[in-house]
């Protein structure tokens, strides 16, 4: 199982040293996310200052861009990283796409499927010389003159990962992508009953198997070495779980455990800003279902026991930043043997 780490700094000047530190610590990959800053820029700097780790956007917002801009950015990062880049894409939600990005929102599952296919058609033109003649319901790409053609990429094509929660987007990932990023608000039960079957349906459509595909999961983890620390970190996790649980799109995960009625109440409280009341609704059972807890030495075996047959890559979504000494101890569990 590979272990990745996030670039948490928002200061581009600090990215080179942060990336080198992650690689030296023994992580297998670095991911960026798109919040207040662009998701691509940090990984360009990380590519220049690392040699081994995989570099993944987790995620950039697909519908804020178009297939050509995404294809070009990913192709260039694959070149800059010497073949270590993965293009991770997510949809965001309708209000952000329409009101923040001023872009069109419609049929997100179908649109994402077509967007990935369009990116692949563009790459095929550049990398293999195939005529560009992509005509879909949402995107059309039929013009590519030599001046705009970068030619074959000596490091091959980037892999494409899709992020999602529901079975329809998960199935699309299995059909057209190279990997899937499971949302942190997920559980072993939901993955085994909903995520994995959806991926397998999509893979069957494309004539592939699980061995042709990689699943990544940013696991919610608590690393603690005393009962007092464990209790404190559990309480820090409750608001995060309450926030995720208030989101209508994530109700499907709560439904898998019979907790679906909790979502409307969390959503109602979120609109009043009563985060304390929201956190109080997250029971110990809910925390234990969503979060892997333990000492540094216990994290790897416990996480592997839950998700080893599901995911090939993990990262840690923790309520605190793990110090260097704890990171070494956690990673040792994954690298043993």
Layout of strands and helices, then pairs:
Elements (H helix, E strand, L loop, with lengths): L1 E5 L8 H11 L3 E4 L8 H9 L4 E4 L2 E2 L5 H14 L4 E6 L3 H7 L7 H21 L5 E2 L4 E2 L17 E6 L2 H10 L2 E4 L5 H18 L8 E10 L3 H19 L5 H5 L6 H11 L2 H6 L3 H7 E4 L1 H12 L5 E5 L6 H12 L2
Parallel strand pairs: 1-2, 1-12, 2-3, 3-5, 4-5, 5-8, 8-9, 9-10, 10-11, 10-12
Antiparallel strand pairs: 6-7
Helix pairs in contact: 1-2, 3-5, 5-6, 6-7, 13-14
Characterize the structure shown.
This protein has 337 residues and is an alpha/beta fold. The longest helix has 21 residues, at 108-128. The radius of gyration is 20 Å and the shape is globular. The strands form 2 sheets. The chain has an 8-stranded parallel barrel with strand order 1-2-3-5-8-9-10-12, surrounded by 7 helices. The protein has one domain (2-221, 293-335): TIM Barrel. α1 (15-25) crosses α2, α5 runs parallel beside α6 (167-176) and α13 (296-307) packs across α14. It has helices at 15-25, 41-49, 67-80, 94-100, 108-128, 167-176, 188-205, 227-245, 251-255, 262-272, 275-280, 284-290, 296-307, 324-335, and strands spanning 2-6, 29-32, 54-57, 60-61, 85-90, 134-135, 140-141, 159-164, 179-182, 214-223, 291-294, 313-317.
Overall mean pLDDT score?
Answer: 95
The secondary-structure class comes to: alpha/beta
* Number of H- or I-type helical stretches: 14
Strand order of the largest sheet: 1-2-3-5-8-9-10-12
Globular, elongated, flat, extended or rod-shaped: what is the shape?
globular
Ranges where pLDDT stays below 50 over 5 or more residues in a row are: none
CATH topology, by name, is TIM Barrel
SSE string, helix = H, strand = E? Answer: EHEHEEHEHHEEEHEHEHHHHHEHEH
Number of domains: 1
């Amino acid at each position: 199982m590979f272990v990745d780490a996030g670039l948490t700094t928002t200061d581009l000047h600090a990215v080179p040293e942060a990336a080198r530190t992650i690689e030296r610590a023994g992580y297998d990959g670095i991911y960026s996310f798109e919040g207040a800053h662009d998701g691509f820029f940090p990984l360009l700097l990380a590519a220049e200052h690392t040699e081994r780790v995989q570099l993944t956007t987790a995620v950039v917002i697909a519908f804020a861009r178009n297939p050509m801009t995404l294809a070009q950015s990913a192709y260039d990062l694959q070149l800059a990283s010497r073949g270590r880049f993965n293009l991770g894409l997510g949809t965001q939600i309708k209000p952000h796409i329409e009101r923040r990005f001023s872009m069109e929102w419609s049929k997100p599952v179908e649109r994402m499927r077509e967007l990935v296919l369009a990116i692949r058609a563009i790459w095929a033109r550049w990398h293999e010389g195939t005529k560009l003649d992509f005509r879909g319901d949402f995107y059309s790409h039929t013009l590519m003159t030599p001046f705009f053609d970068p030619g074959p990429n000596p490091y091959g094509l980037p892999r494409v990962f899709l992020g999602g929660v529901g079975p329809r987007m998960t199935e699309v990932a299995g059909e057209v992508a190279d990997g899937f990023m499971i949302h942190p608000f997920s559980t072993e039960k939901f993955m085994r009953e909903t995520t994995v079957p959806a991926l397998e349906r999509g893979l069957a459509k494309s004539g592939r198997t699980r061995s042709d595909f990689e699943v990544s999961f940013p696991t919610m983890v608590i690393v603690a070495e005393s009962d007092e620390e464990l209790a404190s970190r559990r309480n820090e996790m409750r608001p995060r779980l309450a926030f995720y649980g208030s989101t209508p799109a994530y109700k499907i995960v709560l439904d898998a455990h019979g907790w679906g009625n909790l979502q409307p109440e969390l959503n109602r409280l979120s609109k009043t800003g009563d985060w304390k009341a929201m956190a109080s609704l997250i029971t110990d059972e809910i925390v234990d279902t969503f979060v892997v807890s333990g000492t540094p030495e216990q994290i790897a075996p416990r996480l592997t026991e839950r998700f080893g047959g599901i995911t090939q890559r993990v990262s840690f979504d923790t309520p605190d930043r793990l110090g260097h000494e704890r990171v070494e101890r956690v990673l040792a569990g994954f690298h043993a043997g």
